[in-house]
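Dear colleagues,

I hope this message finds you well. In preparation for our joint manuscript, I am sending the Cytochrome P450 (Mytilinidion resinicola) sequence together with its predicted structure, so that both groups work from identical material. I would be grateful if you could confirm receipt.
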Amino acid sequence: MSTFLVCSTLIGAYLGYLLVSLFRNYHAAKILGVPIVLSPFDLFHPLWYLISPAFKPLVSLLPYRFRRWSSLYTGDWPFYDKRRIHREAGDVFALVNPWNYHIIVGDPVAADAIYHRRKDFIKGKNYAIFNFFGRSVFSVDGEDWSRQRKITAPCFNERVSGMVWDESVRQARAVLKHWTSDEQGKVGSMVDDTRMITLHVLSAVGFGIRQDFGHGMADVKPGHTLAYRDALLGLLTHFVYPLVFPLWFLEIPGLPESSMKTAGTSLRELNSYMDEMLNDERTAIENGEAAPAKPNLMSALIRSSAEERKPKDRLTDEEIKGNLFIFNIAGHDTTANTFAYAISLLALHQDCQSWLREELELHVHHSESNYEEVFPHLKRCQAIMWETLRLYPPVLAAPRLSYGPQSIPLSNGQSISVPPDTRFHLNHYGIHISPSVWSSENAPAHEFHPQRWIKPSETDPKEETLLHPKSGTFLAWSGGPRHCLGQKFSQVEFVAVISTLLAKYVVELAVSRERLEATLAETGGGSPALTIGRKEDIVLRLRNVG
Ligand code: HEM
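The corresponding structure tokens are as follows:
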């Protein structure tokens, strides 16, 4: 038999096998009673992310009815799709391919049930790729998660919130000084500067390392090739490489200067910084030294773990490093992007800024602003954060896996029953812009309207209430027992920074409205991320109104 014949028979047999598999998965999904969208590929497989750009031009030539699946083409699909697929296929549907099927959830009741039943719907192996320093509360399930959450959660206490506030105000003041140094009040580095704020707040509150605002290389400690801040920044910027390649590969001698090499060097440096800090803290505990008056997250984590009576309940060194790294990964771009989007949205919506100003004039008086006194009053400022996160959630969707057979309630009063190991994707953004959930007589769901979060007081303008959304309808920080551990941290940071920047200044457009809107309509890749893949910073103007 000729090679050609052998190859064609093998390819034909494989295509036949795929067709049969597609048919089998179709029937398995059909039994669930949800609408079905067929796809020729597994769109959530990591391999797809690598090969999908090559197919894109070809796929776009197909008539829409043959490529409905392509609405979910890239990791940021919820942002571009804007619920179209849910309008066509339903709030909950199955995306069936020859290898498996995924249930896409755009229904708040179903999402809420899935997030609240953490033992029934687990993260599974998907998150193990984040373990390159060690397992963390973010990446594990079951009893292991309970053990890690019990130790990590108390670290995010009110004392830490106070530290976040103080450091955020300090950083924001330095940034403001830098911004106002331009005679025309032009700000050309808003995204980079706010990103630096989040990095410095994390480094001060996370590890007790305070950095002054500025873009130059920070101090390099003896025995290191990078400063701690720059190692952290290098890894956060390029952390996709260690997710895919082992450290030895990133450090192959002779590798040219590249993002990959930076990721490798940063990873090694950060690991050795963390080892040193861990040793110092351990020695302090062994010498009976009391906890510092203001313990950073690292010392709080080590001490909280050491307090566990049974050694098996404590965190290992790898787990401590894994958690500290996750705090940085989870808390950096998420918060930085929220700043960049919020400031841009405020520049576009001057009415919202005036509304915010009324609150700042009432509550931000002193040069020494204090967390306990000021934060609880700045409800409009918080509303601006929540509304920004509703329209630009850094985590657009999240996966879960059913553990055992499960039944899930739906908004229409019905329910679906699924077998074990069913893959789910919870479309946060799709739920955030659902008209049935978010449209009101004052504003449609897709419009930036922070006032929707505030219940005015009929008697006292100082006594407004921040409304809490119905469970399952707002998932920017996720939901249920595994909701974001750093939610309060990011809220305090946001309010401290925005209230400091805008107490005496108004931020205005320095480019056309259309140009800024076009920038906000594009994502940088996997999620709305003004910091990734951006060709230029967002240029704004500051006007003094103090
Ligand atoms: C605006 C800022 C933030 C947003 C929008 C955000 C969003 C989220 C989301 C959606 C999840 C769930 C992810 C999933 O289930 O796949 C999560 C989990 C988590 N976040 Fe955040 N986050 C923010 C800031 C922070 C900060 C500042 C920290 C720490 C300093 C942090 C630490 C964590 C941790 C440890 C988890 C895992 C919790 C668990 O699984 O028990 N986050 N975050």
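For the figure legend, we might mention the following. The pocket of protoporphyrin IX containing FE is lined by residues 137-138, 149, 326-327, 330-331, 334-335, 338, 389, 394-395, 398, 476-478, 482, 484-486, 489-490 (CB under 6 Å). The chain has a mean pLDDT of 91.

With kind regards,
E.M.
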